[in-house]
Structures are given as structure tokens and as C-alpha cells.
Amino acid sequence: MHDVATTHDEGKGQYFWVWGALLLLTAAEVVLAYRQVFQPLRMLEVLMMLSVIKSALIIGYFMHLKYEIAAMKWTLMVAVTICLCLMFIFFADAFRIIHLGVR
Amino acid sequence: MADVAVQHGAAEVYEPSLFGAYSKKIGMWLFLLSDTLTFGALLFAYSYGRISTPGWPTPFGKESIINATIMTACLLSSSLTMVLGVLAARRGDRAWTRNWMLFTMLFGTAFIVLHAMEWSRLIDSGMTPFKNPWAANVPQFGGTFFTLTGMHMLHVTIGVIYLGVVSLRKKFLPILLGLWLVAWLATPADNVFHVGAHVLLIGAVVSAAILFLKPKDYDAHDVEVAGLYWHFVDLVWMFIFPLVYLMSTRVV
Questions:
Q1: pLDDT averaged per 10 residues in sequence order, chain B, 252 residues
Q2: Do residue A57 and residue A91 come from a single domain?
Q3: Do A2 and B92 form a contact (C-beta atoms < 8 A)?
Q4: Residue A2 has what pLDDT?
Q5: Best interface-test mutation with A: which of B75, B169, B246, B247 has the largest number of A CBs within 10 A?
Q6: Which of A36, B38, B172, B213 gives 20 to 30 Å between its CA and that of B247?
């Protein structure tokens, strides 16, 4: 494997910290869900918030996006976030069904 | 215009690469974005059904949740070993690049095996894509579960094969064929993985075509790009795990 110039100098240590944080967040999710701390809808919000934090850690550190240039970060993340948010359009319908009841 | 271009050196004719990154990395990122939308659509469809269907089954008790938590820890640890492999590749340390990637594959394989056992348990208890023993009025529960987790399991399997090709190259082919034989012959004939194991055979054929038709020495860039794919598979599980498992825990 030939040497490839690195644009940044990072230590191994930060990856272990990120790994530890991810494991802790997972443990928190499991405890919250298993103890059924919240009502289902609130639980969904809390779990998704924790999952978004976890995915930010994975994308930023493990996938190195933190160290890419700003144009790449913004183009990729804005594109994918907008596309995913467009899918929320279906949820109004899901709530409508549960409030009206299935006939 | 053509004359002008000819007078310049070849290096000046080409534009600099997008975002200053090498093209393989951009290609992988674009693929991962499209794959995000695939999984996004599946997860949104599942969540839609989950919200709009009263009486959604919650069959995952203590055993299932512990199993799924161990699977999550396996994937997270595999991401750590992968990133250490990428660092080793940047240092030019071939031996440790290979070792860390093998650890990653080991964790990935553990994930697949644990998940396969979980699937077999659920199928044994009477769950199919079209019915489940917990809620007769929600027949789609099995369909959503098997589609989401099956699609993810397929991605993990492809990831393990991808890492094997990059780390061991042609030496990986006999190992993969061995794994296929073990997975095929060690599972009972009525088990879904008896047929599913043939994914490994297809993977071996595709890997062989790549390794023999375009033989090359994979460098640190290839390791990093493989790493991007692997972390993405981990990332998707971070959403499937809470949505599918944690939202369906059985109250004790």
C-alpha cells in the first residue's frame, strides 16, 4: 500500500471516544425503550433524535466528512436531508388515518 | 479551440476533481446518498404503516432486545476496527490494514450469524412475510420486518465480501467458497438461509470476475472507500434498530 498524503492529522484516540459515545447512546436507547419511559410517539421522537446524533458522529468522524472541504459537506448533507424530509409528506396521511379510524 | 487544448499539457486539459477529493470517493458518496434514499423510503414506509395501524405487534422481549443490542455493539465495534484499518493504510502498514479489516469482517460475520439465528427463531414461532402469531389484523408486520432487516443483512453480507476482496484479494475466493459451503450445508433444508447462503456463491462469482478481469493492488484509497461503505451499513442499522426493535418491545 503506497503512502497517500493526508490532509489532516488525527489521533487514534478520538475514534475510541466516538466509539464509546456511540455505545453509550445505544445503551441509553435500549434502557429508554425497555423501561417504556415515554408514550410511543414521544419515544419515537426521542429515539430518532438520539439516532440522528449517532449518525452525525458516524458520518463526521468515521466517514471523515468533518475533514472534507466545506463545499462537499454542504452539498452532500443538504441534498440528502432535503430528499429525506420530502418523505415526511406521507405522515400527514398516516395521522389522518389513525384519527379517522380505518373504515 | 481544439488546437489550443492540444498545445497544453495533458494535466491542464482535465479539470480538477470535484471537491478536491479523488473520484472513487465521490463515486462512493454518491452511491451512498442514493442508497440512503432506498433505505429512507423503506423506513418511511414502515413508519407510515406503524403509525396508521392500530394494534401493531410488540413481540420483542428481553431475549430479542439483548440479542439486537449485541448485534448493534458488533456493528459499532466493526466501524472502529475499520477506521483503524484506514489509519493503518494511510501509514502504509499493510499487515495491520489487513488485520483490522479481518477484525471488521469478523464482527460483520458475527452480526449476520446472530441476525440469522434471530430470523430463524421468529420464523419457527410462526412469523412469515404474510402472517404473524401476535396480531392477526396486522399481517404486514412480517413483511416490513423481513424487508427492512433482510435488505440490511444483504448490505452487511456484500460489505464483508467487499472488505474480503480489498484485504485478501484472490486469497479470499477459497475462503468465501468455504463459507458458502458451510452456510449451505450446515443449515437445515427447510431453513430460509439454506437458500439464502447462495448469495455468498453469487458474491464469489462476482468477486472472481472483478479479481481476475481487473487485477490490481488495492491502495489506501480503496481501503478508505470500502470503509465509507462499511460505516454506511453501520449507520443504517442505527435507524433500523430503534425503529424496528425498540419501538416493538414487549412490556414486561
A1: 48 72 90 95 90 87 92 96 95 94 97 95 92 90 94 97 95 96 93 94 97 91 96 96 90 66
A2: no
A3: yes
A4: 44
A5: B246
A6: B38
Same domain, yes or no, for A61 and A91? no
Burial of residue B243 (CB within 10 Å: 0-12, 13-18, 19+) is buried
The 10s digit of each residue's pLDDT in A57-82 is 999 999 999 988 898 999 999 999 99
For A64, name the nearest residue in chain B, comparing CA atoms only. B228
Residue of A nearest to B235 (CA): A55
Residue A10: band (very low, low, confident or very high) from pLDDT cuts 50, 70, 90: low
3-state secondary structure of A33: helix
Q: What's the farthest any 2 CA atoms get from each other in chain B?
A: 78
CATH among 1.20.140.150, 3.40.50.2000, 1.20.120.80, 3.40.50.300 for B22-248: 1.20.120.80
Around A80, how many Cα atoms within 13 Å sit in the side-chain half-sphere?
19
Residues A60 and A73 occupy one common structural domain: no
| Residue A97 belongs to domain spanning | 69-103
Per-domain residue ranges of chain B:
22-248
Degrees to nearest 5, angle at CA B17 with B12 and B23: 130
- Is A40 found in the same domain as A11? yes
Do A44 and A94 belong together in one domain?
Answer: no
Per-residue pLDDT at A13 exceeds 70: yes
**Nearest in space to B88 (alpha carbons), one of B107, B103, B101, B78:** B101
What cell was used for B146? 423481513
pLDDT at B2: 45
**Quick one: A54 and A78 in the same domain?**
no
The Cα of A91 is separated from the nearest Cα of chain B by a number of Å equal to 6
pLDDT at A95 (0 to 100): 78
Mean pLDDT for all residues in chain A: 85
How many angstroms separate the Cα of A25 from the Cα of each of A28, B5, B50, B243? 5, 55, 24, 15
Total domains in the fold of chain A: 2
Is residue A26 within 8 Å of B242, Cβ to Cβ? no
